[in-house]
Design brief:
Blueprint lengths: L3 E5 L6 H15 L2 E5 L17 H29 L3 E4 L5 H9 L4 E4 L15 H9 L3 E3 L12 E5 L4 H9 L1 H4 L4 E7 L3 H6 L6 H8 L6 E5 L6 H11 L4 E5 L6 H6 L1 H9 L4 E4 L1
Parallel strand pairs: 1-2, 1-4, 2-3, 4-5, 6-7, 6-9, 7-8, 9-10
Antiparallel strand pairs: 5-10
Helix pairs in contact: 1-2, 3-4, 9-11
């Protein structure tokens, strides 16, 4: 089970939603939580304050301090009500660096994508992707809308034989050990390569069973005409998935991720949590 879960706290409209889901997950898994509120988490403070008039700087700092204290109080009160041991951290400097450092002291970091309709939030659009690429720890992304009744009971694992997917599978072990159903999805599999490497059809399923996980339902699908991201989303819906686990790819593919591509499609339209690891 995860022993320590970090929750990204911010001034965005879904911050309290992250708190509630993170605390519920911690209570279910008997974990402790760390609320991480980077100092650059208030809109208007991402820029160089020195270029602003003194009265505006003072106003921004006051707003920052008030919001940080209100968030701290809310977080610790909710943790106390949930019976979860909680720690508060407010790192200075760049948000990505602060979150990355704290993620390395936890088993899991809980974040969400920026809401494009939240004009007052300082949440950077691609902050979760940047953190997962830099931290070396798994990031659990929570959808901004819709009910999240369970996380990790019915897992969809996206498997492509690559290092990143293998790392995600390993990082998701605390959740996989307690899932009730596991679906392994392969998209556009290279069957010729499988034969050349003498990889057998049941090798991955047998590996799952050897680890004490449920015997997975193994699906092979073609993305032609649909796109990889849409295939994953459709499969998640068809299998009643409550958690998608997948690898996050290296910097050479990061431009595709930000500008388009399968992961961008998935994260833009996700209706269930997604665990990413690199």
């Amino acid at each position: 089970m995860p022993g320590r879960i970090a929750i990204h706290l911010n001034d965005d409209t879904v911050c309290e939603r992250r708190m509630d889901i993170g605390l519920r997950l911690a209570r279910e898994r008997e974990a402790e939580v760390v609320g991480v509120y980077p100092s650059a988490s208030v809109a208007g403070l991402q820029q160089d304050e020195n270029i602003l008039p003194q009265d505006i700087r003072n106003s921004l700092r006051k707003r920052r301090d008030e919001h940080r204290e209100a968030t701290r109080t809310l977080f610790l009160d909710k943790a106390r009500e949930a019976g979860v041991r909680a720690h508060w951290r407010a790192p200075h400097g760049d948000s990505e660096d602060g979150l990355t450092m704290h993620a390395r002291h936890c088993d899991l970091l809980l974040m969400s994508k920026a809401d494009p309709n939240d004009n007052l939030s300082a949440l950077r659009p691609n902050l979760p992707e940047s953190v997962v690429m830099a931290s070396g720890r798994p990031v659990l992304l929570i959808p901004n809308f819709g009910p999240i009744d369970t996380i990790g009971r019915r897992i969809l694992f996206c498997w492509d034989q690559r290092r990143e997917a293998a790392r995600a599978f390993s990082d998701a072990a605390p959740l996989l050990r307690h899932c009730q159903a596991l679906v392994v999805l392969e998209i556009d599999r290279d069957d010729k390569l499988m034969r050349e490497r003498d990889i057998h059809e049941d090798d991955f399923s047998d590996y799952c069973v050897s680890l004490g996980y449920p015997k997975p339902r193994h699906l092979l699908k073609d993305s032609k005409g649909y796109g990889v991201g849409n295939v994953i989303l459709n499969t998640a819906t068809d299998t009643d998935t409550d958690l998608i686990v997948m690898g996050a790819y290296g910097h050479s593919r990061m431009r595709q991720w930000i500008m388009g591509g399968a992961t961008s499609t998935l994260l833009a339209s996700m209706t269930v949590p997604v665990l990413l690891a690199n």
